Amino acid sequence: MTLRRLLLPIFLAPAVALAQYQVVGDDACPKFAVDIAAFATCDGDRVAVPGHASSLHVAALPMQEVSPLKRSDGGRHVTAAEANRIRDSYPGQIALLDIRARVEVVYSGRPDVVDVHVPFREPALPLQWNPATNSLKMQRNPDFADQVKAELARLDWPEDSILLLLCRSGEMSAIAADVLEAAGLPNVVTIVDGFEGDLSASGRRDVNGWKNSGGRWHFVPADRLAAVTP
Hints:
Oxidized Rhodanese, domain 1; 6 helices; alpha/beta; 18% strand; 5-stranded parallel sheet; two-stranded antiparallel sheet
C-alpha cells in the first residue's frame, strides 16, 4: 500500500494557529478545531480516531476572499503560491492537474511538477474565432471526468487524493472542480489565480498566478502539440 493510500486527505480551511486546524468536510465538522498532529477526519458530529501521525497544513482561502467567478461549489480554494508550496512540501500526497487546452499549454508553458494533464476544453473544430472573447471558440471535453479518473488509476493515485486544478486564471478550474466532484472525486481544489494569473492595470497577466509566484515552469516544444503529457 502506498503512502498516498495511508494518508487521509485532510482538507481544507483558512490557516489558523499552527497548533490547530479548522475542520471542514460535512455540515457538523466546522464546529471543531483540533490538534493538527492528531486530527484524522470527520464522522457526523464527532472527530474520528486518528489514522496517521500527521496531517497536511494548508492555507486555504476563505470563500469571501474568492471572486464569485472563481468559486467552486466545494469551496476549496488556494493561491498558486500555496499550491506550489504544498505540492513541494507533501510529495506523493497531492496531485497537480493541468486542465488547460493543449494549444494553451504549448503557447504559455506549464509547471515543472504537473502530475496529470487532461484538457477541460479544446478549440472547436473546424477552428472558429469568437469575437466576444477575442480568442478561438472552445468546446468542453465531454469525457473530462472519465479521463481524469483513468489517469489517476494509471498512475496509482486513489480517487480520494487531493487534486489541485490549474487553468489560466482560476475561472475554468472552478467549473471543472464542480464537474469532478459531481463525478465522485471528493477532494478537488481550485487554484484561484491559475497559471498566468489575473490581469493588471496594464492589461498584462503579471499580478499573481503560478508564473508570477515563484513556481517552476517551462515551455513545451511546439512539436509536442498533438500530445502534451507530463
